[in-house]
Write a structure and sequence with these properties.
The chain has helices at 2-17, 33-61, 69-100, 104-140, 151-183, 192-203, 205-210, 213-254. The chain is mainly α and 255 residues long. It starts with a helix and ends with a helix. Mean pLDDT is 76; it is low at 1-23 and 204-209.
Length: 255
Amino acid sequence: HFYKRVIMSVQISDEDDLITSEQSPRFKKVPTLAAAITQIVLCLAQIILVFLLPSLYDRHSNGVHSFGSFSLLIYTHGAHWAAFLIIDQFLHYHHHKSRLQGYLEFYVRTKNIRRAPFYILSVGNAVLMIVVMILHDLCDSNNSCSHTFTKVDYLRGLITLESLVVICLVVSYILILTDHHNKQLPPDVLREDLTSSIMQNTSQDDVIGCLEPDQMMEVLERQAEMIRYLHEHTENLGRKILVLTSQLSQKERMA
């Protein structure tokens, strides 16, 4: 089977490439724990800020400032979103690097939960803008508008709910990351249990047909990540071969 031969050849090349003074490849941790903790700290700081800032700012402003605490909270939420954008790019870089090292199962497990906090904040920004415009159109320009909650109260509720959801997702990500570091498994392409199960699922169409839709999607996703890894690994090996060939030809000309 062509797929089996490709995986076996890549495993052999990986083993030859990873041969060092040790018999087994060294496990490399994904350095994203500090970034995840930073996300939790930012969310907690945002919750504290949305409750303390209005009372402290409005109490000491005395009408001196040109904008109120509501506007200031909108600006801080924008800075909060920008910080998560930077952290999201940092996480994407290291998870992409981990996938290139062969940890495909970990990449699949954390792919959605890693992206979710930034997407939730982006949706939160859109919801905040809609709420601000609704309050402005219905209440600010209408003196007869009466409501129990102020604009800051609506902002407190939305940001608190948003931050709590993000904290739960980040904690789940930290648990998966810690489990990955504690197990210290070799790359998935060198694990016979994973590669044999993937090859078995590709070669036995009747087994795929008996799977549930969710299970079938999981199998197909893992196969797609394996094929993607093999393609990128082959390209990297091709570039290394070109570099070594050019270096060898230069040495032969110098000799």
